[in-house]
Design brief:
about 280 residues; alpha+beta; Arylamine N-acetyltransferase fold; 8 helices
């Protein structure tokens, strides 16, 4: 990570005006504000554009251009900011289990997670998981139900060197989000995972539009041409269908705050609209 993000620009982007020190309060504030301001989105993979992981490109896209990104971009940006503030960061990799059957084949390691060691206590930070993005850092402690503003999470043992992240559903059952290894990885390791995630025809991001934003009390998710508003327990509050390219543009700009000026939204809409909408 040879490049340092401009902290003034980043803090202005997420609306942070607090102290610039390595404390739990600062970590919690940045983790809360980042996903509210910088949405999860996969417009680059969907439109066959490269997802670049050098920090200059990430900063230009997510901060300067007011775009969003997925885990490798979002968490790399946060990691650089935290490192500049004096936090001790360890990069980790995980396997996404969200939406998969229990007996499904083991997925590749395609999710970036951050470990933060602070005052003799370890935390997990993740501002880039889309529909279940953490609104706050979690203590790296197994079996502890950790309530946040948008849901209750816990970590569970997967093996000696791995943990599950789980989220509590409305019926109080627990659903696995992903499994992550505790062994550190090198930053270069994310390049191969990112290549698969952004280019493989088997990747969900190559053929579906997924845009997510964490707000103070609800989550917004755009899955292809369906916009969902969900409560903290995951229950759907509202759902509507996007029926035109103009409506898609208004949604991406209004609900998600995305600058899509250089994206061919007519092509995107044609690819994501449901068959019932086709003429």
């Amino acid at each position: 990570m040879l490049h340092n993000v401009n902290l003034d620009n980043y803090f202005a982007r997420i609306g942070y005006a607090g102290e610039r020190v390595a404390t739990l309060e600062v970590l919690q504030a940045l983790h809360r504000l980042h996903p509210r301001a910088i949405p999860f989105e996969n417009l680059n993979p969907l439109t066959r554009r490269a997802v670049k992981l050098d920090l200059e490109s990430i900063e230009h896209k997510l901060v300067d251009q007011h775009r969003g990104g997925y885990c490798f971009e979002q968490n790399a940006l946060l990691a650089n900011v935290l490192t500049q503030l004096g936090f001790n960061i360890t990069p980790l990799l995980g396997r996404v289990l969200w939406g998969r059957e229990a007996d499904a084949p083991v997925p590749p390691r395609t999710h970036m997670v951050l470990r933060i060691d602070l005052d003799d206590e370890a935390w997990i930070a993740d501002v880039g998981f889309g529909s279940v993005t953490l609104p706050a850092p979690l203590r790296l402690a197994t079996g502890l139900a950790q309530r946040t503003q948008l849901g209750t999470f816990r970590l569970a043992d997967a093996s000696r060197d791995a943990r599950y992240l789980e989220v509590q559903a409305a019926d109080e059952s627990w659903t696995r989000v992903y499994r992550f290894d505790l062994q550190p990885v090198e930053w270069i390791d994310y390049e191969t995972s990112n290549w698969y995630t952004s280019t493989s025809p088997d990747s969900i991001f190559a053929s579906n539009l997924i845009v997510c934003r964490v707000l103070s009390e609800v989550r917004l998710t755009l899955l292809n041409d369906r916009l969902y508003e969900r409560a903290a327990d995951g229950q759907i509050i509202s759902e509507r269908q996007i029926t035109s390219v103009d409506e898609l543009a208004a949604c991406l700009h209004g609900q998600f705050g995305l600058n899509t000026g250089d994206i061919d939204l007519a092509d995107v809409f044609e690819r994501i609209r449901t068959p019932a909408n086709r003429v």
